[in-house]
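[job 4471] stage=fold_predict status=RUNNING
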Amino acid sequence: MEIDQIETFLAVLTYGGFHRAAAALNISQPAVSARVRALEDGLGVKLFARVRGNLSVSPAGRRCVLMLNNCCATSRGRGRWSTNCSHPPAAP
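[job 4471] inference complete, writing structure tokens
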């Protein structure tokens, strides 16, 4: 997993889609798709639900957002988020 993959995932969330994220990042839409797919493969979860042209954040994607934001901001915690994204936190 690379920081550019994380930044791209967060851009898709921020801009509401792959095409808008691509424009904001000044890269192609296929490059955005490839980065998100690589991040999903690395985490072992699907971050988005794609149904008939509609894009929504998956439950795993929602669990990952805060951790990936923190990772992007600090570049720490890389070993912890894969497990946290794959499994919801335990109830207190």
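[job 4471] summary: The domain at 3-81 is CATH 1.10.10.10 (Arc Repressor Mutant, subunit A).
[job 4471] exit 0
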